Amino acid sequence: MATEAHAIAARRQVPTQGIGARAFALLLGGGVAVNGVVLVWLWLRGGGISAVASTGALWTSIGRLTGLLGAYLALVQVLLLARLPPLERRVGFDRLTVWHRVNGKLCLYLVLAHTVLITLGYAAMDQVGFGREFARLLSSYPGMIAATVATGMMVGLVFSSIAIVRRRLPYEAWYAVHFTAYAAIALGYLHQIPTGNDFSAAPSQATWWIALYVATAALLIAYRVVRPIVRAGRHRLRVSEVVRESPDTVSILIRGRNLAALHAHPGQFMLWRFLTPGRWWQSHPFSLSAAPSGDMLRITVKAAGHYTAELADIRPGASVLAEGPFGRFVADRRTRRRVTLIAGGIGVTPLRAILENLHGEPGEITFIHRVVHEHDCVLRDELEHLGRRLGASVHHLIGDHRDPIAARYLTREHLLELVPALADNDVFLCGPPVMMDITRRNLVAAGVPAAQIHFERFALAA
């Protein structure tokens, strides 16, 4: 049973967890910063300021710097996508996702600025128009066509990541567009060494630049290719059973060997790749919907598109590749004896798994599941059973948002009715983004400190 000592122990687990992950993250972050400083130093050493003697030379010099920084941030973008477990454990996947989005836009802006400024600078020095100078560069400079194609790919990547575009793109199209990031970086590289003044005239600097690409590629291959293959051979994951939970939701039971070595915790998610025709090339993030055991993992998936709708047709025995686990949305973040878990729709899956691992006195744990329709109350029987076992209060809030009664659900006043001592609770929250944003604001208005509200958004790029 939970005691104050238990709560204190839970608080201590969070900062001490993953000391190796902290060292790795610091080492990687330090390496990124140091190499960025070296890059700027090389630009200065190559006359970035001292050699500027005209307006054209100024545009060209700034264009060189933006090009170098843009190419460097493209390598950083790859590292953010490399599935580095120590970095993910230390930083958190939601924060990495934000960094990835911001870094990607900044990278594109720098590359576009490089293209415009270099062309302006050369046009000013050659005393010709912008269009004529650009055509000359495209036809006479090594790798310029490849670099132009790479820039176009980067524009497509950023455009497809805009929320309104992303929602309308089929996953397969979005995945294919994002996979071109690697081709864009490779094409850009073909332009950098032969035409970059900082590298073409300085073999040692070119060697350093090549080493950055090699190191980035090595980390990418190690964690995105080799590690999943090695783990696949070690754990031999297979679909054991597919259980229909509702008309549009299924649970997939996956068995394997020595699954404890995955160090998966309730609340985390993994990238799942089912090795069946039409599915083997796609990986999708799904949370564990039950606490993992030594030989079984379970995910619960709601049909939200063509791919997820077809998962109900997977046959037992199908092989599975899994990357992860990812995420810090786990019970160890608990700092209070009282805990409230709030789920919206299929967001119930990680919270159901977390509930299974919680301990507390009767009345200290509350579970709230908000859905629109009755059939959306997936895993309801399991939640009720866990609630009885733990002495937890379980509430199912069902109704359309346009209904006056349902419209009150999860408001500040309603939350305080369900959990009067809400401010003294840790709150774990998972659901659709809009629902989470509104509920977080209502929780803060109800007196819950932001540090006691735990959530995580997960969305992985290709």
Description:
The chain is an alpha/beta fold and 462 residues long. The chain folds into 3 domains: 11-231, no CATH class; 240-326, Translation factors (Elongation Factor Tu (Ef-tu), domain 3); 332-454, Rossmann fold (3-Layer(aba) Sandwich). The chain contains 16 helices and 11 strands. The protein has helices at 4-16, 19-45, 55-80, 85-91, 93-126, 130-140, 144-161, 163-168, 171-195, 197-200, 203-235, 306-310, 348-356, 380-390, 412-418, 433-445, and strands at residues 238-246, 249-255, 269-274, 284-287, 296-302, 320-326, 338-344, 365-371, 393-398, 425-430, 453-454. The protein has a 5-stranded parallel sheet, sandwiched between helices. A 3-stranded antiparallel sheet has the order 1-2-5, with no helix packed on it. β10 (425-430), α16 (433-445) and β11 form a beta-alpha-beta unit. α3 (55-80) runs parallel beside α11 (203-235). The longest helix is centred in the N-terminal third of the chain and has 34 residues, at 93-126. The radius of gyration is 26 Å and the shape is elongated. The two termini are 43 Å apart. Residues 1-18 have low confidence and may be disordered.
